[in-house]
Amino acid sequence: MKAELTWQEAKAKAQAMELEIAALIPKGTVTSIDQKKTGVLLSCNKTQHNWNGSTTVTVAEGTKIEPIVKDIEAHYRANGTTVSADRNVNDNYRIQIDPYAPGESYIVSEGFAPNEIRIASGSACFTLPEGVYPGGDF
Question: Which of 5, 39, 46, 102 minimizes the number of CB atoms within 10 Å of its CB?
Fold first, then answer.
């Protein structure tokens, strides 16, 4: 685990990866990309946390989302990245991309509203500086 990683660096890397994933969605289908400016910290273990945020990509009405998610899955599998797939509680196809850093993962699936693809991120684990409380927005 990278104890020297700051929460700001972890957040920046996770947000960059969200946008990298969003860039794989066919440009002709994308109507907007909304990346949340803040996220929250979750515990990795007793001493470390990871940053969690999300990006929502709105696609044109009538766009079939499952084939797009499967194309993103194929892209990361072809690069040797660990990817798992299942269906969420709404029976939408969902993938989890797990790069090598402990705690780091990205979940891609149909969003909470029609015509949306949600990219949820969790950064690599890091140690907060002494005296920094992990609650609230980061």
Answer: 46
Q: Tell me, rounded to whole angstroms, the distance of Cα 121 from its chain centroid.
A: 3
What is the reported pTM?
0.94
Closest CA to 92 of 72, 77, 75, 112: 112
**Mean pLDDT by groups of 10 residues along the chain of 138 residues:** 80 98 98 98 95 98 97 97 96 96 94 95 95 93
Q: What's the one-letter identity of residue 19?
A: L
Cβ neighbours, 10 Å, residue 70: 13
pLDDT for 19 equals: 98
Long-range contacts of 7-12 (CB under 8 A, 24+ apart): 7/41, 7/49, 7/51, 7/126, 7/128, 7/132, 7/138, 9/126, 10/50, 10/51, 10/123, 10/124, 10/126, 11/39, 11/51, 11/53, 11/123, 11/138
